[in-house]
Amino acid sequence: MTLIESFYPVLKPWLFRLDAERAHTLTVKMMIIAHRLGMLRSVVSGPQQSRSVMGLTFPNVLGLAAGMDKSASAVEAWGALGLGAVEVGTLTPRPQPGNPKPRLFRLPEHEALINRMGFNNPGIQSAVAKLKHRRTKAVVGVNIGKNFDTPNEDAVKDYLICLKAAYPVADYIAVNISSPNTKGLRDLQAEGAVRELISALKKEQAILKQEHGKQVPFLVKIAPDLNEMQIEALARVFNEQDIDGVIATNTTIDRTAITGHRLANETGGLSGAPVRERSNLVLQAFRMLLKEQIPLIGVGGIVCGKDAVEKMKAGAALVQVYSGLVYRGPGLVREVLEAIK
Questions:
Q1: How far is it, in rounded angstroms, from Cα 95 to Cα 219?
Q2: What's the CA angle centered on 22, arms 337 and 225, to 5 degrees?
Q3: For a designed S-S bond to 87, which of 66, 82, 196, 224 qualifies (C-beta 3.0 to 4.6 A apart)?
Q4: What is the β-pairing status of strands 104-107 and 245-248?
Q5: What contacts 9, CB < 8 A, 6 or more positions away?
Q6: Which of 71, 178, 179, 279 is an active site residue?
Q7: Quick one: pLDDT at residue 1?
Q8: 179 catalytic per annotation
Q9: Residue 49, pLDDT score
Q10: In angstroms, how far is the first alpha carbon of the chain from the final one?
């Protein structure tokens, strides 16, 4: 067990006495300091099983989901921890403060979080400047979205701005059209809207490939709250457009799993253990409908190694964690990778 693994159980009770967002900000800052002081060591022992997905070589199958490092401030630290990939963002063309606080809540009884952050971020250019000098061996993804005040009819412009900015520094780009915390964003998952968006991004991707001499894949991140018809419609578009990959899934607006909890009526996306079952069902459905060459990244509800194994069995080529790290700490990274071996 590494120092950081043994230290987290001591630190966790103190962090959980703080406001959830303040604790999150403090944790990221401590990660950065620990890395700079040389105190951060990979929790992964022994040789890792690398995996080739979308033409990229991932040191291992476990990545950090978007939302944990919105500003790309701690990429080196997350990589040093032993994660095979780090997805930063969501980032928008212009900086924005996000929704009013409080906007992040813990539900320890359910190993869950509710957030309505609202894409608070320093803007795509700020993150790009940081990523230009990254040295981590982890694959780095950049998650992009639209500004809250950009109407949906102009959303494609925002995504194109972010795609162009992120392309030179990203290993892959994730297109977020599934957060419940930006008004109207999920409407972009409608068949006509998503076809228009992906078509525009594919055209720009081809231009950028020629300009930069490299292929940077982009994936679409989808919601777990899709019904059967919506899943079929999205899969149809993804197959038609030969999309590079799909991330399944984002947070849920459904509260069935936490009925009766004092925070159940808080608006925002629910993540952690309660979203696992629905996320896995959506993952399975897309794996059955998508072309074999379109990979899926499974995220949602991984709080132990067994959860990650279930995602892989459901059809995920890679998996990501977020809420599980809040409750389990760095030891979850080791447990997941050992379970997947």
A1: 23
A2: 60
A3: 66
A4: unpaired
A5: 329
A6: 179
A7: 64
A8: yes
A9: 83
A10: 18
SS3 labels along 162-200: HHHHHCCCCCEEEEECCCCCCCCHHHHHCHHHHHHHHHH
pLDDT number for residue 215 = 97
pLDDT at 46: 61
Query: 4 and 34 in contact (C-beta within 8 Å)?
Result: yes
**Radius of gyration of the chain from its Cα atoms, rounded to whole angstroms:** 18
Q: Which residues pair with 53 in a beta bridge?
A: 56
- The identity of residue 72, as a single letter, is A
Contact (Cβ atoms closer than 8 angstroms) between residue 47 and residue 103: no
In whole angstroms, give the CA distance from residue 167 to residue 131: 11
pLDDT, averaged per 10 consecutive residues of the chain (341 residues), comes to 76 95 94 85 72 96 97 94 95 98 97 97 97 94 98 97 98 96 92 96 98 97 96 97 97 96 97 97 98 97 97 98 95 93 82
- Work out the angle between the directed axes of helices 155-166 and 124-131 (0-180°, nearest 10): 10
pLDDT of residue 217: 98
pTM of the model: 0.96
* Beta-strand runs (E) in the chain: 51-53, 56-58, 62-64, 85-91, 104-107, 112-115, 139-144, 172-176, 218-222, 245-248, 269-272, 296-299, 318-321
Cα–Cα distance, 286 to 301 (Å, whole number): 18
Position 7 scores a pLDDT of 79
